[in-house]
Structures are given as C-alpha cells and as structure tokens.
C-alpha cells in the first residue's frame, strides 16, 4: 500500500526576528486525520510555528505545503 501524502508538510522552517533566531530548521509532516501536539519549554518556538502556519508571521526560509 503506497504511503499517503501529508496533509501538512513543513520543511526546513527557520524564523528570525532581526538577530533573534526563533525557529531553526524545523520539519514536520502531519497526515490527514492525525492529531499532533507541539510541546516544549517556554521560548522554544511553539507559538512561532503556529503563527507561521496561520500566516501571521512570515517564515525566513523553508517551506510549508
């Protein structure tokens, strides 16, 4: 059975705010119907990743499809 294409694919996501590196080279594939949680300590980039996904923050490099 061939693998399904991911519903969301993040590849090499990097976000900078001036000299501050907020997210460095993050990648993630989420399949259709999958439930995903993003966890980590304060300041690790969780909210920044979600803001990039919703279009509120531009990504510096990488791709989202």
Provide a concise account of the structure shown.
The chain is 12% helix and 38% strand.
What is the terminal-to-terminal distance?
Answer: 23 Å
Our Rg estimate from Cα atoms comes to: 13 Å
Mean of the pLDDT scores? 92
Percent of residues in β-strands: 35-45%
Largest sheet: 3 strands, antiparallel
Question: Which word captures the global form?
Answer: globular
What portion of residues is helical?
Answer: 10-25%
Q: What does this protein structure show overall?
A:
The radius of gyration is 13 Å and the shape is globular. By secondary structure, it is mainly beta.
Characteristics:
65 residues, mainly beta, 3-stranded antiparallel β-sheet, 3 strands, 38% strand
Secondary structure layout:
Blueprint: E1 8-17, E2 20-30, H1 46-53, E3 61-64
Antiparallel strand pairs: 1-2, 1-3
